Amino acid sequence: MENLELELKLTVAHVNTVLKHLGSGVYAEVADLINLLHGQAKPQIESAAVAAPAAIVEEPTE
Predict the structure, then answer these.
(1) Euclidean distance between CA atoms 5 and 61, whole angstroms
(2) Is the Cβ–Cβ distance between 21 and 33 less than 8 Å?
(3) pLDDT tens digit sequence for 33-50
(4) Domain boundaries along the sequence of the chain
């Protein structure tokens, strides 16, 4: 079942939290996962921005 693909629905805030915690991991262990998440999220965010630019609000960074 390790190769079973899942489709998860997460908010941008949830994904950012996951990426924040992955960022503190050992690079060699998390880099591929970070790239995979980024590669799947970026087109969706860009598409949403084109479809409804007023609905996309940047959250302040700490």
Answers:
(1) 31
(2) no
(3) 999 999 999 998 888 888
(4) 12-52
Per-residue pLDDT at 28 exceeds 70: yes
Structure-derived torsion over alpha carbons of residues 24, 29, 34, 35, reported in degrees to the nearest 10: 140
Residue 36 in tokens: 């995979």
8 Å CB contact between 37 and 20: no
Q: What DSSP line would sit under 2-61, residue for residue?
A: TT--------HHHHHHHHHHHTTS-HHHHHHHHHHHHHHHHHHHHHHHHH-GGG--PPPP
The number of residues in the chain equals 62
Measured distance CA(17)–CA(14) in Å, rounded: 5
**Can you tell me the distance from the alpha carbon of 62 to that of 56, in angstroms, rounded to the nearest whole number?**
19
pTM, entire model: 0.68
